[in-house]
Specification:
Layout (H helix, E strand, L loop, with lengths): L9 H20 L6 H12 L5 H8 L3 H13 L3 E5 L7 E5 L1 H21 L5 H17 L8 H5 L8
Antiparallel strand pairs: 1-2
Length: 161
């Protein structure tokens, strides 16, 4: 359909809303000293604390060198600590600190608040239907569940001078 208005295109609307949500989430994590990539890693560590850096890289589909940089950032912020891995002497296990558990809880509250704000016009049944449809689209696109593709493209920020 030629000259179709952008707001009639589902992909445009998904992109517009996604960008808006990413901006909000990034802004709300900043006071916590977190970035969205950190939130993803901390969330996966909260599920299984003590994973190796390689396990995290494989799970999140991030190059192992990029994962080292991300874990370095988290360690610099006092959110994780590295320890000898209990079963692989060549690996480091990554553990959440008490500060990380506090920051993660605060970040999860922000994520919940954003979800409630964005989805406020929808009732519970509409929300459930939307999530079901979005999962279907995500699966069709070949996106791994629970892993944000932005994490794979993230570059370590250059240190400020």
């Amino acid at each position: 359909m030629p000259n179709q208005p952008l707001d009639d295109r589902g992909v445009f609307l998904l992109s517009q809303i996604g960008h808006h949500i990413a901006y909000l989430f990034t802004a709300r994590l900043a006071p916590l000293g977190l970035e969205p990539a950190h939130f993803g890693i901390l969330s996966h560590l909260a599920a299984v604390d003590g994973r190796s850096q390689q396990e995290l890289a494989d799970l999140l589909k991030v190059h192992r060198n990029a994962m080292v940089g991300l874990v370095d950032e988290l360690e610099e912020r006092g959110l994780v600590r590295r320890a000898k891995h209990p079963t692989d002497r060549r690996a480091h296990a990554v553990h959440l600190t008490a500060r990380a558990r506090w920051a993660l809880a605060a970040a999860e509250a922000e994520a919940e608040a954003i979800e409630n704000e964005i989805l406020a016009p929808l009732d519970d049944a509409e929300r459930a239907h939307l999530v079901q449809q979005l999962r279907r689209l995500s699966a069709h696109a070949g996106l791994p569940p629970g892993i944000h593709p932005g994490l794979q493209r993230r570059r370590r920020a250059t240190p400020s001078v």
